[in-house]
C-alpha cells in the first residue's frame, strides 16, 4: 500500500515539475523538471505509543529516512500523500483500526479570511518578518521554552535543551528556513522576537513544520493564527497553490483551529478533496465553543514523536 501511495505522490510531484520551464515565470516558484531517478525508499514502522491527540488510544507510524541527493523530491512526493517531516525522517500515521489523523492544506490562491482573521492581519501588520537560514539561535530557543511552558507544560517537547532544538532546526536535508516575526525596530537593534516558524518550501506550496510564539503577549492576541495567515499570504504571493498544516483530528481540541481556514482540503482515499462550504461551516460551528487561542495541552507525547522512535538498526 505504501508503495502505491508513493508512486501516486511521485505522479503528483511530476505534475508540478514536468512542464515547460519557459512558460513559467521564475516568480511562480516551481522547480524545473526532475530528470534524475528517485530511488524507492525503505519504510519502517514504529512500535505503538500513546496517541498525542485522542486520550486512551495508541498510535503507530510508518516512516522513512530522507537522505541523499534526491531528498527534496522524495519529501515533496511523500508530502502529497500525507507524510510529514521531522528532521531527517518523513512519517505518517499508520494506526490499527483508526484513521482519525487527516492531512489538510489551505488553498492559498482562493483563501477567504473571516472577519476575525482580517482583524488579526491588520493588528499584526507591523510585525517585521524575515526568512532566515535553518540555523538555531539562543533567542529562538528562549522563545520556544516560554511557548512550551505555557501551551504544552509537561508535554513531550518540554524537556528539549539547546542541542535538541538545534537538531530540530538544522538537521534538514530539504529546502527549509526559519521565518522570524519581530516587533518593529527602534532604529538601533532588531525588534523583540515574538514568533518563529520552521518551514519547508515545496514545489506546490509551503509546509509548516513547527511554529511557536510568545503566548503571553497581551497586545498581540492570536499570534499563532497570524503566523498561519502570513504563510497563506506568502504562498499566494509566490504563486504556490497550498499551505500544508499537517494533521487535523476531528474531536481533538488541539487541532480545531486548523478547520477555520477557508477553503481547506483533506487527503482522502480518493486523493485531495475540498470541504464544501457547508461541511466546513458545520465543523467551525462545532468548535466555536472552544477557546480560539487553544488552551494548554495536558502532558503527553510530542506530536512528531521522539527521534528515538525513528531509530533504524542496520
What does this structure look like?
There is one protein chain. By secondary structure, this protein is an alpha+beta fold. The chain has one domain. Helices cover 26% and strands 24% of the residues. The chain has 7 helices and 14 strands. It has an 8-stranded mixed β-sheet, with helices on both faces. Strands 1-4-6-5 form a 4-stranded antiparallel β-sheet, with helices on one face. Strands 2-3 form a two-stranded antiparallel ribbon. Strand 2 and strand 3 (58-59) form a beta hairpin. Helix 1 crosses helix 2 (71-79). The longest helix is centred in the first third of the chain and has 16 residues, at 2-17. The protein is globular.
Write the layout of secondary structure elements.
Elements: H1 2-17, E1 44-45, E2 49-50, E3 58-59, E4 61-65, H2 71-79, E5 84-86, E6 89-93, E7 101-107, H3 115-123, E8 128-132, H4 138-151, H5 162-170, E9 176-182, E10 193-202, E11 205-213, H6 223-237, E12 242-249, E13 264-268, E14 271-274, H7 277-286
Parallel strand pairs: 11-12
Antiparallel strand pairs: 1-4, 2-3, 4-6, 5-6, 7-12, 7-13, 8-9, 9-10, 10-11, 13-14
Helix pairs in contact: 1-2
Amino acid at each position: 500500500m505504501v508503495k502505491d501511495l508513493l508512486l501516486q505522490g511521485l505522479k503528483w510531484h511530476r505534475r508540478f515539475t514536468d512542464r515547460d520551464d519557459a512558460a513559467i515565470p521564475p516568480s511562480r516558484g516551481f522547480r524545473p523538471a526532475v530528470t534524475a531517478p528517485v530511488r524507492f525508499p525503505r519504510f519502517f514502522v514504529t512500535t505503538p505509543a500513546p496517541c498525542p491527540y485522542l486520550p486512551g488510544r495508541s498510535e503507530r507510524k510508518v516512516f522513512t529516512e530522507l537522505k541523499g541527493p534526491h531528498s527534496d523530491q522524495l519529501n515533496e512526493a511523500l508530502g502529497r500523500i500525507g507524510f510529514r517531516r521531522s528532521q531527517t525522517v518523513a512519517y505518517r500515521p499508520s494506526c490499527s483500526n483508526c484513521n482519525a489523523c487527516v492531512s489538510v492544506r489551505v488553498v492559498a490562491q482562493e483563501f477567504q479570511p473571516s472577519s476575525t482573521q482580517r482583524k488579526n492581519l491588520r493588528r499584526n501588520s507591523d510585525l517585521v518578518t524575515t526568512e532566515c537560514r535553518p540555523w538555531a539561535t539562543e533567542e529562538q530557543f528562549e522563545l520556544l521554552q516560554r511557548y512550551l511552558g505555557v501551551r504544552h507544560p509537561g508535554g513531550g517537547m518540554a524537556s528539549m535543551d539547546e542541542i535538541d532544538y538545534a537538531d530540530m532546526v538544522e538537521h534538514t536535508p530539504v529546502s527549509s528556513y526559519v521565518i522570524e516575526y519581530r516587533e518593529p525596530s527602534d532604529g538601533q537593534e532588531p525588534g523583540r522576537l515574538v514568533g518563529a516558524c520552521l518551514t519547508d518550501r515545496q514545489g506546490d506550496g509551503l509546509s509548516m513544520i513547527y511554529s511557536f510564539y510568545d503566548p503571553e503577549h497581551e497586545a498581540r492576541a492570536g499570534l499563532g493564527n497570524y503566523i498561519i495567515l502570513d504563510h497563506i499570504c506568502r504562498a499566494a504571493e509566490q504563486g504556490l497553490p497550498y499551505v500544508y498544516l499537517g494533521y487535523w483530528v476531528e474531536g481533538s481540541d488541539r487541532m480545531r483551529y486548523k478547520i477555520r481556514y477557508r477553503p481547506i482540503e483533506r487527503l482522502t482515499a480518493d486523493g485531495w478533496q475540498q470541504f464544501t462550504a457547508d461541511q466546513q461551516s458545520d465543523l467551525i460551528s462545532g468548535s466555536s465553543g472552544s477557546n480560539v487561542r487553544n488552551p494548554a495541552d495536558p502532558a503527553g507525547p510530542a506530536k512528531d514523536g521522539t527521534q528515538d522512535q525513528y531509530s533504524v538498526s542496520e
